[in-house]
Structure formats: C-alpha cells, structure tokens
Amino acid sequence: MIKYISGDILQSKDEYIAQGVAVGSQEGLGTGLAFKLSSQFPEIQKLFKKYTRNTKFQAGDVFIGEIKGFSPGIIYIATQPDMYHAELTYLNKGLKRLKKVCESRGIKTVSLPKIGAGLGKLDWNSEVKPLLESILSDCETVFNVYEDYKIEYEN
C-alpha cells in the first residue's frame, strides 16, 4: 500500500527509511537526502560503506542497514549509475527487490522520498510515481511516500 504524505522524512516513525543511491563503492553519500541520512545515522553508513567495499553493489541492488535496538533502519537502493542521475531501469529493479525484501521480512512500514526524482532528475509525475504505484501498491507493507518534503526545523 502507498500513502502520500508531507513532513520531514528524517522524523519518520516507520521501521525503515529507503533511499536511492549510486552503484559501486559508497565513499561519498555526500549530497541530498543520502547526506542527511548518513549524518543522522553514521553507524548505518559505516555498515553500508563496509558492505560496498566487499560486494558489488549493482543496478537495483538493495542493502538493509540496521543496528539492534535502533530504529529506523535504512534501506539503500541502487537507482543511479553515478551520483548525478537516476535510471528508470535501475529504479524498476530496485523497487521490485524492495517489495520482495519487505514481503520476505514482514516489514510493515517504509518511508520513501520521491526516489529518483530529486537529485536523480527523473520526472516524478510521469515516470517515478506511476512506476511506484505499479510495483508497490499491492504490497502489504505501507510505503509512506514523502511527496511534500519539509524539514522539521524549517518554517
């Protein structure tokens, strides 16, 4: 199920926050939401960097970062061939994998930004939103999509 909401994704009470990132080794995560998440959850970023140093992180791959007793977890999805743009084919693969992971793990709630449509430069209304709906709408997991993103401390 998909719900479109507004608010600050960094204040999410969901089990996980999902984020699109570039393929390959993640020594950066230095822009946009990826930077904010890595700043707020540095231990999960360390796990992700270690993982990508030892494993090929390719188009559509999903990494789940979690620390016992700590919430939310972070889900990184390889949606971009580089840090400057997302690819719809990568996003398609990644959303399908995300759905499978959520179903197999019994994940109840995931927060999503307008994945691929920010720094990834895909069009939200004509490309990303229809793809999200075609893949995730029949899933038992509730995907809270922050369609109108607001930072809590900004007015």
TrEMBL record:
PROSITE patterns in the record: MACRO
Domain Macro: 1-155
SUPFAM superfamilies: Macro domain-like
Catalysed reactions listed for this entry: an N-(ADP-alpha-D-ribosyl)-thymidine in DNA + H2O = a thymidine in DNA + ADP-D-ribose
Biological process annotations from GO: peptidyl-glutamate ADP-deribosylation
Family matches, as Gene3D superfamilies: Leucine Aminopeptidase, subunit E, domain 1
Recorded coiled-coil stretches: none
The name this protein goes by in its record: Appr-1-p processing protein
Organism field: Bacteroides ovatus
